[in-house]
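Below is how a single chain appears once it has passed through the pipeline. First comes the sequence as given, then the structure the pipeline wrote out for it. We keep one example in the README because the format questions we get most often are answered faster by looking than by reading.
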Amino acid sequence: MMNFKKTVLAVALLAASFSAAADQLADIKQKGTLVCGTLGTAEPFSFPNQQTREIQGYDVDFCKAIAKNLGVKLELKMISVAARIPELQQNRVDIVIANLGWTAERAEQIAYSDSYYASPQKVAVKRTSGYKSPADLGGKRVSATKGSTSELAVRKAIPTASVTTFQDPPAAFLAMQQGKVEGFAVSELMLSKFQAQVESSSPIDILNPPLINELWGVGMRKEEGGLIKQVNTTLEGMEKSGEAQQIFDKWFGPSTQYKLKRDFKIEPIKG
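Resulting structure:
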């Protein structure tokens, strides 16, 4: 009799677990709001509009598209790079769209959507330094944003380098300009912006090859099967309709300061 009761209890707990996971998407729809965690300090991905002070950008447009597909309002929550996974795990946000590059370590903790952006991670140095490749920075000091894929990439690609971390890319870049470190690691896109800003005063070189080519995905909790499927369905639809291309051109295309060509498509991340 006791074994029967234990079996019934175990089945009930398992059913409750599946129900809770299945209800996550329904809960978002019921409350009528999707809470999307984003950085708010990473132009052109998520940053304040100078006139309205509203947060805008490439990542924000994907937050908006997912909320629209779910038929709910969007609530943006500003989070730091280091807090992206903790905020998700502690249920403070529903999804994270915040320059979240895929790594095997992160994929053990959270679920990733299909990739919606591809970002080469590179190292920059002062032009006067004479460094020609990332390997030249072995045994040297390199700055990166704390908790970022750039930090992980430096540790993996240049294992003898000493990594100094900062809260945001501008602070890490300033450390290099002030001579506190010899190199600065971040996305190629951000490096191109910094390079243009200092070309006439204190020029920098962006070194090749890339440390890694980073694929970004929407971060979600692993147990949210329904939400994961819905997000991927939304992303697939954006690729097919051309909306994803339009968002890319809006922030990175020929009419922007970056003048980049989209050479990737939304597709599953093969880790």
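Residues 4-22 have pLDDT under 50 and may be disordered.

See the next section for the split statistics.
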